[in-house]
Amino acid sequence: MKALEIEGLEKTYRNGFVALKGIDLSVEEGDFFALLGPNGAGKSTTIGIITSLVDKTGGSVRVFGADVSKDPMEARRCIGLVPQEFNFNQFEPVGEIITNQAGYYGVEPQIARERSEHYLKKLGLWEKRHGSARNLSGGMKRRLMIARALTHEPKLLILDEPTAGVDIELRRSMWAFLREVNAEGTTIILTTHYLEEAESLCRNIAIIDQGEIIENTSMRTLLTQL
Ligand code: ADP
Ligand code: ADP
Prior knowledge:
Helix content is 36%, strand content 28%. The protein is an alpha/beta fold. Helix 3 (94-104) crosses helix 4 (109-122), helix 3 (94-104) packs parallel to helix 5 and helix 4 packs antiparallel against helix 5. The longest helix is centred in the C-terminal third of the chain and has 16 residues, at 168-183. The radius of gyration is 17 Å and the shape is globular. The model has no long low-confidence stretch (mean pLDDT 96). Residues 13, 15, 17, 19, 37, 39-45 line the site of one adenosine-5'-diphosphate (ADP).
């Protein structure tokens, strides 16, 4: 089964800017996949279309077989998204941010609390669960979004620049956590502009530049070419 199949994906923003020029991408179930590219390359646009937050202007996207245009709810159910920007209510208690999101996906309250406890503990946020998210450090907010993305047990976890602005020690512990999540069977796609991050985590990689895929190969093959 393919976790993601993108064919001829195009995006022209309303101001006429062509952000994606017909890209093809395919990610196997179980993969740990990097979409690498400089700022402005089109990574967030691609993620936005996969998660139905941005409308495409051409091509097709399937998530575990579900077409994002024809069956957006099914596609979204498969996905846990960790966006680049903090997009939770900063005044809400940390624990509630997690359990509310799970509720939105139809997870039973008791199960939502169990999963929330599990991930908050794993990510070092359990002691913070009663406090509002506004009091968390940047790295903690990032981890909060990771916990939130996992409580409905998505088949595909997508992280947009997950360690941007995170110090090296925390980055390494987040990497270890993500490796574990992947080892348990969750397909992971991340965007990054650090080759080191892609190298450390990912088996396969696509490099995007100015709205075009300029390389799509295994990490191992890429590294032997450098
Ligand atoms: P990346 O995530 O790789 O940094 P983005 O997908 O955010 O790249 O952006 C790709 C290009 O599209 C950039 O040049 C950006 O300025 C442009 N862009 C992004 N959003 C919009 C928008 N809403 N309207 C017009 N142009 C946009
Ligand atoms: P208390 O234990 O302080 O009497 P509650 O258990 O009702 O109160 O929860 C208070 C806050 O802690 C709520 O914001 C709730 O979402 C959060 N919380 C409690 N248990 C969990 C849990 N297992 N996972 C996540 N958040 C939790």
